[in-house]
């Protein structure tokens, strides 16, 4: 069985509300990127875990859809995916409750029904969808 590992590192200083930290990824695409309470729960500068999960989900879904389209004999010109992640307070903590994926794609020669089928399959089977314990909805349309 094939196996793939990716790594990331987080460093935090101070309390949860007043502290701050940095995130670094194996590829160094993120290298000591700041994150903080205000970036997570407000509009402060820096990133946050939920924003990164939304980005990962949009990217994972787009790539999964591209592979499925190619496997079905279609070459996408463009796949634009947005992910809106919802986090809700629950029992004194927080949980990711939902992700809404919206995709608009330019795919020459595909019938709308076939596109809908492949988009639903990509939503169900991309690795990020499979790891999330959240309601995932999809709004897919050809551009």
TrEMBL record:
<dbReference type="InterPro" id="IPR015946">
    <property type="entry name" value="KH_dom-like_a/b"/>
</dbReference>
<dbReference type="InterPro" id="IPR003718">
    <property type="entry name" value="OsmC/Ohr_fam"/>
</dbReference>
<dbReference type="InterPro" id="IPR052707">
    <property type="entry name" value="OsmC_Ohr_Peroxiredoxin"/>
</dbReference>
<protein>
    <submittedName>
        <fullName>OsmC family peroxiredoxin</fullName>
    </submittedName>
</protein>
<dbReference type="Pfam" id="PF02566">
    <property type="entry name" value="OsmC"/>
</dbReference>
<dbReference type="GO" id="GO:0006979">
    <property type="term" value="P:response to oxidative stress"/>
</dbReference>
<dbReference type="InterPro" id="IPR019904">
    <property type="entry name" value="Peroxiredoxin_OsmC"/>
</dbReference>
<dbReference type="GO" id="GO:0004601">
    <property type="term" value="F:peroxidase activity"/>
</dbReference>
<dbReference type="InterPro" id="IPR036102">
    <property type="entry name" value="OsmC/Ohrsf"/>
</dbReference>
């Amino acid at each position: 069985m094939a196996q793939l590992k990716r790594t990331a590192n987080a460093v935090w200083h101070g309390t949860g509300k007043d502290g701050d930290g940095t995130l670094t990824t194996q590829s160094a695409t993120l290298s000591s990127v700041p994150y903080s309470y205000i970036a997570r729960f407000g509009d402060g500068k820096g990133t946050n875990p939920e924003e990164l999960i939304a980005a990962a989900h949009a990217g994972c879904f787009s790539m999964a859809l591209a592979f499925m389209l190619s496997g079905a004999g279609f070459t996408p010109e463009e796949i634009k995916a947005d992910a809106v992640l919802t986090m809700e307070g629950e029992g004194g903590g927080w949980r990711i409750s939902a992700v809404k994926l919206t995709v608009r794609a330019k795919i020459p020669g595909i019938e709308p029904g076939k596109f809908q089928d492949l988009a639903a399959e990509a939503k169900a089977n991309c690795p990020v969808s499979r790891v999330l314990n959240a309601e995932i909805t999809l709004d897919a349309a050809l551009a």
